[in-house]
Specification:
Blueprint: H1 3-15, H2 17-21, H3 30-57, H4 63-90, E1 112-113, E2 118-119, H5 120-137, H6 148-171, H7 176-180, H8 188-206, H9 221-240, H10 248-276, H11 281-295, H12 304-328, H13 337-355, H14 369-372, H15 376-404, H16 413-418, H17 420-425, H18 431-443
Antiparallel strand pairs: 1-2
Length: 444
């Protein structure tokens, strides 16, 4: 460049240094965007999958109510997330809660989420599906006796008062668990511990069902197996999608998700076989879920070998614990939410602090206790686990008591005896039941 052109150009850059150093605007990566939207759809499918899983386990007279208790979360929690939930979880705020800068998705419509170079709306939608399924998990603890109107109110309050703060603690900017160094790849703390311990106190407060023991047997095993299959299928989006990008880390989480479900499937089934002399389909389906819960906080942090060990341990431990609860306590956690989700998530989160490896994910700056001998990550996850479990337990207690001031949270004995399908919804999952209801109506 000639001297007479070079000097003015240099002078202009010196006069406007911000212009000279301005970084290039992030460009949307179409591959990552397609991956994240696909995974969002997979996670959305998990809520209907959960509904079928639970509906197969209840009595014939409570199938419709169980399905609707889960499906309604799509509407209530989804709309709350779009209006205020996402902002309170993922915008800048304090260590305890996010701010209001993104209420009604303000400012993100045309924004790029720089962490993965995807539209910010795609990241928001992915996180929305997590928020939706989490309180739906609790319906298994209070199945066959919850007042649907009270559940709708509790569902919204719980999402805002339990899920949203914990999501900020773990995944939000400046959240205290994240700042402490705690790791949760896809929701062991945020999803399963909150739902598991929320479900525990809910089962304690709601009390036992009045059903005859025969009615407490699963009404439809094929529906349970279908629900488990849909959950496993959707869980690939749950865990692998949490990598946010369609690369090696997503592939690792994808494979580990399969390995985790398959390992606990066998572990649970073999324990049942040894204990009762026969393997059961319901037990196998439950084992799949336990393995998937266990590997959720660890899917992007631990090796395949560690995943195999983790899910073997929880498959055996949760099986034994679930049967102990049923046989030795008066707790009526209808569909074993605490034993399967709460317990498996606690074990999975703590063991993530033991096995997390930078060889799997370079973002692991402090490796697990059994990998490096360092205690920082182990204690961060242990403290996070205790804090989230205690918070979910206490706040769920308060919310149930609050809702009960305005309406009964449990249906009457007559309604429970008739079944929630007929008494609350005027429907039946079975043709014969619907016909009987119509005939009874005409006779009256």
């Amino acid at each position: 460049m000639k001297r007479r052109y070079f000097l003015p150009a240099l002078a202009s850059l010196t006069a406007f240094p911000a212009l000279a150093e301005a970084p290039a605007a992030p460009v949307i990566d179409s591959g990552n965007t397609a991956w994240l939207l696909l995974c969002s759809a997979l996670v959305m499918l998990m809520t209907p999958g959960l509904a079928f899983f639970y509906a197969g386990m209840v009595s014939r007279k409570n199938v419709v109510s169980t399905l609707l208790q889960n499906y309604v979360a799509l509407a209530i929690v989804g709309l709350l997330w779009v209006t205020v939930g996402y902002s309170l979880s993922f915008s800048e705020g304090s260590r305890w809660i996010g701010g209001t800068s993104m209420v009604l998705l303000h400012g993100i419509i045309n924004d790029v989420y720089a962490g993965a170079n995807v539209p910010h709306l795609a990241f928001m939608a992915f996180q929305m599906m997590f928020a939706i399924i989490t309180p739906a998990l609790m319906t298994g603890s209070i199945a066959e006796r919850v007042n649907f109107k009270a559940w709708m109110l509790l569902l919204g309050l719980w999402s805002l008062c339990v899920y949203v703060p914990v999501a900020h603690w773990v995944w939000g900017p400046g959240g205290w668990i994240a700042t402490m160094g705690g790791l949760d790849f896809a929701g062991g703390l945020v999803v399963h511990i909150t739902a598991g311990f929320g479900g525990l106190i809910a089962a304690m407060l709601f009390g036992r069902r009045i059903l005859h023991p025969i009615e407490m047997q699963p009404n439809n095993v094929p529906m349970i197996m279908l629900g488990a299959a849909l959950l496993w299928f959707g869980w690939f989006g749950f865990n692998a999608g949490s990598a946010l990008t369609s690369g090696a880390l997503a592939a690792h989480a994808f494979v580990l998700t399969f390995v985790g479900g398959a390992t606990s499937f066998l572990a649970w089934m073999l324990v049942d076989w040894a204990r009762t002399g026969r393997p059961t389909a319901v037990g196998a389906a439950t084992g799949i879920v336990v393995g998937l819960v266990t590997i959720t906080p660890a899917a992007g942090f631990v090796t395949i070998e560690a995943g195999l060990l983790m899910c073997t341990i929880t498959g055996v431990a949760c099986n034994m614990f679930a049967h102990w609860v049923k046989e030795k306590t008066h707790l009526d956690d209808s569909l074993d939410v605490f034993a399967c989700h709460g317990t498996a998530a606690v074990l999975g989160s703590v063991m993530t602090g033991m096995f997390a490896s930078s060889a799997v994910n370079p973002a692991v700056t402090v490796q697990g206790l059994l990998i490096s001998g360092e205690t920082k990550l182990f204690f961060a996850n242990l403290i996070g686990t205790v804090a989230v479990a205690s918070y979910a337990f206490a706040v769920t207690f308060v919310l149930i008591k609050l809702v009960s001031l305005f309406m009964p949270i449990r249906v009457s004995e007559d309604m429970e005896d008739a079944g929630l399908d007929a008494s609350l919804h005027g429907e039946s999952a079975h043709w014969a039941g619907t016909l009987a209801q119509k005939m009874a109506g005409k006779a009256a």
